[in-house]
Design goal:
Helix 4 packs antiparallel against helix 5 (100-119), helix 4 runs parallel beside helix 6 (125-148) and helix 5 (100-119) packs antiparallel against helix 6 (125-148). With 149 residues, the chain is an all-alpha fold. The chain is globular. Helices cover 78% and strands 0% of the residues.
């Protein structure tokens, strides 16, 4: 809704937001939404601590994308799917389970998304790989450290 409003008011040239400076407002809005999500996970639903760590990792990844985006167009799409995979891996690690079908499915979707972003000429291969790794590491590594430290 925010992007449609920004397009209607002329704050952005198109919904693709080619200008890096125009991406800052949607990213900050999303960071605020993630903050409410963190409050909801911790304060209302009271999910296990590792889930809060995943949420904080996602917030950190998006904050990093927001900053990096001023100099380099890292893929926020791949950061999101990488973060989802990191969250699933955190869940699997904390509950000693291996949802192999889900993990393989997410990897396939990630590869398809990488291909789509490259096919649309929206990113370079390095931008999609770095975006994916940023999301994956930001949501999984903190739980790894928390579990084994």
């Amino acid at each position: 809704m925010l992007l449609l409003f920004m397009r209607w008011r002329g704050y952005i040239g198109s919904l693709h937001i080619e200008n890096p400076k125009q991406r800052t407002t949607p990213y900050i809005y999303t960071l605020i939404c993630y903050g409410f999500w963190a409050y909801f996970v911790h304060g209302v639903v009271r999910l296990p601590v590792f889930m809060l760590v995943v949420v904080i990792g996602a917030i950190g990844a998006l904050a990093a994308v927001t900053v990096i985006n001023h100099w380099w167009k890292i893929s926020a799409h791949l950061t999101g799917i990488g973060g989802l995979l990191g969250g699933v891996c955190s869940f699997a690690m904390n509950y000693s389970t291996l949802p192999l079908g889900l993990i393989i499915g997410l990897l396939v979707v990630s590869l398809l998304l990488m291909y789509a972003r490259l096919y649309l000429d929206a990113h370079t291969p390095m931008q999609v790989v770095c975006g994916f790794l940023l999301g994956l590491l930001a949501t999984f590594v903190p739980n790894l450290i928390m579990t084994y430290a």
